[in-house]
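User: Predict the structure for this protein chain, please.
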Amino acid sequence: MNMIQWLQEADFTKKTMPVLSFPGVQLIGKTVDEMVHSGELQADCMKAIADRYHPLASVSLMDLSVEAEAFGSPVKFSADEVPTVTAPIVDTEEDAQALRIPNVGEKRTGEYIKAIGLAVEKITECPVFAGSIGPFSLAGRLMDMTEIMVKCYTDPEIVHAVLEKATSFLIAYNLAFKKAGANGVVMAEPAAGLLSPDLIEEFSSPYVKRIIEAVEDDNFLIAYHNCGNVIPLIDSILSTGARMLHFGNAVSMEELLPKIPENIRVLGNIDPVSQFRNGTPESMRQAVFSLLDACGKYPHFSISSGCDIPPASPLSNIDAYFDAVSEYHKR
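Assistant: Here is the predicted structure, written as structure tokens:
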């Protein structure tokens, strides 16, 4: 599929592409723990969601532990919650130099690549996007987020050493998704939302740009996700060259959209917690209508979830989201 053509011609106004994967465990009768260890179950989950909701694109799991685990980070698993990294593995310059770049396929990365290969066979009505962490967010998990923020000032050489290794791995990992048949990747770089404009320009955007330049072509698209306060960071984020941006509910989309050229697709930002997880069908309908009233006038905007939708989100709220988008455009 020519993804540049898809980006230009797909009906982003009437259809929607939320980051919807983990709630699919409710459709296939499995636990989160079972799914994150099985490429087959992940593909089944993506297929079940595609069949129920017919999204603009199918999006794989936003599991921000899998790449760090491949580097050696300890991970906590749960039947009902998304896996999380529990401890850093890099502190000193010696740790950074000794850090081994894993081979793609180590630990659970092989299952996630397998999932995409199976999903593209099962899902033929829309593009299939894999999920990947961004370079600074991966480095933050390897080093601990508080420590990496301090070291950006006190020991920037350590941060750059880890970022170099993270970026090398992520290029190879994204290329493996591409080889497996993915039409693109949603790259989650939320930790960069904590940085100042100067720091994101040094420690995130150049590395994101390198990944995009190494893997993107007409048939493979990187969608950049950041759920932080990106308004003061938007110029640096635009410098990455990403042609699709996905933002969270920490920002006003109405304030952000005029700052972004109309040739760049911008998605967001219904709150995944207060609406998808804890809202009601009626509150969801009101949230969708309010966001579309405010932002529907921008031709490069498409409504989406603000971030990954939590696993236990009621299907009735997700149903209400898709119904509200459809209802709004039929009015």
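The chain has a mean pLDDT of 97.
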